[in-house]
């Protein structure tokens, strides 16, 4: 089973999280997305299983929980992918319009000239 949950970082309230979990949140620019991820997890799973962190800091459920998850965020959008089949990964990207000519110029590409 796979389950995808999407949300907006700006609208997910950390008020529903336990104080101990809120206290673990990093300070600075990562705080809002970190808390939003925990809110998505707590909405998808109740009660929220104990979490552990790998050597590189990746969060996971403790060995007793037969679930795996991955969180991704871009801009104000956050995605949660849950699985009971093994490790999973997800990536979300907000697509922004770009000026292709300006981008090409930054890369050193010159427009073709005709005579």
TrEMBL record:
Transmembrane segments: none annotated. One of its GO terms (molecular function) is holo-[acyl-carrier-protein] synthase activity. This is ACP synthase. It comes from Salmonella enterica subsp. enterica serovar Daytona.
């Amino acid at each position: 089973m796979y389950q995808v949950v999407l949300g907006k970082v700006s609208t997910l309230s950390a008020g529903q999280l336990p104080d101990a979990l809120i206290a673990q949140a990093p300070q600075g620019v990562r705080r809002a997305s970190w808390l939003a991820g925990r809110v998505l997890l707590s909405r998808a799973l109740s009660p929220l299983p104990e979490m552990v962190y790998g050597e590189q800091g990746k969060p996971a459920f403790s060995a007793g929980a037969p679930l795996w998850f991955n969180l991704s965020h871009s801009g104000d959008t956050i995605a949660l992918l849950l699985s009971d089949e093994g490790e999973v990964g997800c990536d979300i990207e907000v697509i922004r319009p770009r000026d292709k000519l300006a981008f090409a110029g930054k890369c050193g590409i010159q427009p073709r000239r005709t005579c």
